[in-house]
Amino acid sequence: MKTKITTTSAKTTALKLPVMEAFYTIQGEGYFTGTPAYFIRTGGCDVGCVWCDVKDSWDAERWPEQTISEIVEAASAHPARTAVITGGEPMIHDMDILTLALKQEGFKTNIETSGTSPLTGHWDWICFSPKKFKKPLDEYYAKAHELKVVVYHKSDLQWAEKHADRMNSGAQLYLQPEWEKSEEMLPEILNYVKNNPHWKISLQTHKFMNIP
User: Which CA distances in Å does 129 have to 1, 47, 67, 110, 181?
Assistant: First the structure.
């Protein structure tokens, strides 16, 4: 069933979100690796991963607020019609109006979230990436299309299985080495996936390509 879009121009113009950055690039991780997409990185995060590579995003007040109209207009200037909302932790914001406005312009809406705040928005793809620093909410196990676990330590492999056991049957499962630990963790992940083929490997290919 298609989502019925009921946004009004007044709401779209009035609502604002803190945006750290937005850019057109190639998705580097997970199921849509290699796909052109417009990324919208919101400001604000209440998870606080010690190895986070965008810690500047954590304080929402550091970043200028943009109206939904401004965000969607910037996205629409590019040819691809996949929008990826990321952070920070984007789900600390209400995503209903932004996602509906993007859909009005023909976008597929994807989100990357740790799942620590209630799910809002209308999504074509939910990438759920739980973190040890704050417990995710139960609803994400049933609704997410993709589970992506960042592996910082060998023990994270068994921690990942605890989450995989709770996922819906259609979800894609990915293990991804934390960038600074790739040399150490990738061999562990390779062996683990060969022995546990329900998993796939995700790499941060955008960093190899030196793109955002």
Answer: 27, 12, 27, 13, 17
Exposed e or buried b for every residue in 172-201, given b needs 16+ CB within 10 A? bbbbbbbeebbeebbebbeebbeeeeebee
Q: What is the CATH number of the domain that holds 56?
A: 3.20.20.70
Range of the domain at 112: 9-208
Number of residues that make up the chain: 212
Number of domains observed in the structure of the chain: 1
pLDDT at 183: 95
**Res 124 pLDDT > 70:** yes
Structural domain contains residue 1 = no
User: Which pLDDT score, from 0 to 100, does residue 65 have?
Assistant: 96
- With the CA atoms of 42, 46, 47 and 50 taken in that order, what torsion angle do they form, in degrees rounded to the nearest 10? 90
Q: Is residue 4 part of a domain?
A: no
Longest dimension (CA), the chain: 54
118 in a structural domain? yes
The pLDDT mean for the chain works out to 92
Q: What is the pLDDT of residue 3?
A: 39
